[in-house]
Specification:
The chain is of the alpha+beta class and 180 residues long. It has a single domain, classed as Cyclic phosphodiesterase (Cyclic Phosphodiesterase, Chain: A), CATH 3.90.1140. Helices cover 35% and strands 33% of the residues. Strands 1, 2, 3, 4, 5, 6, 7 and 8 form an 8-stranded antiparallel beta sheet that branches.
């Protein structure tokens, strides 16, 4: 079990990513996020343990102070590890990196066992398309996902605390702050 804090997309972008998940499944490949009921997202942080009830109020305040962020999905890629992940790469703009740094300072106080991949200076913003593939499946999934017209403009509209692997959403808040 782990906890992730995920930024959810606007409705149009959510639908476009779900279409990619469907294409992966129709190609006969595992589409784990579709299968487990996930919501298309960009993770801000992941940790082994978190008190979601206690952290929810902090996250609510954070979301109230942060504006929705326009982002661009620009590439189809995989991580150089054995986890078999295929994702859309997100442009790491100054606005996105600054939001992540503000989030991490707050998350660091509440999270136990934060995953290093998601810490400032190591974070690779991405939207996961599928996971747990063997090398042949990764290659096939990359071909399927490469058919998507990129770049894809999206809006990061909400933030949520999600428990995995159940994908239980403990709290979900819209970004309502004003752009500076």
């Amino acid at each position: 079990m782990n906890f992730a804090v995920e930024m959810f997309f606007d409705a149009a972008a959510d639908e476009r990513v779900r279409e990619v998940w469907e294409r992966i499944a129709k190609a006969g490949l595992p589409s784990r996020l579709l299968e487990n009921g996930s919501t298309p997202h960009v993770s801000l942080g992941v940790c082994a343990e978190l008190d979601p009830r206690a952290f929810a109020e902090e996250l609510r305040e954070f979301a109230a102070g942060e504006p929705r962020i326009s982002a661009r999905l620009v590439s189809v890629a995989t991580f150089a590890n054995r986890e078999g992940v295929v994702f859309f790469g997100v442009v790491a703009t100054r606005d996105l990196l600054d939001l992540h740094a503000r989030f991490d300072a707050m998350f660091d106080r509440a999270a136990r066992g934060p995953w290093e991949y998601y810490r400032p200076g190591r974070w690779v913003p991405h939207c996961t398309l599928t996971t747990a593939l063997d090398p042949a499946q990764v290659a096939a999934a990359l071909r399927v996902c490469a058919e998507t017209t990129l770049p894809m403009q999206v809006t990061l509209a909400e933030v949520a605390i999600v428990e995995n692997p159940s994908v239980k959403v403990h709290a979900r808040f819209p970004f309502t702050g004003r752009a500076v």
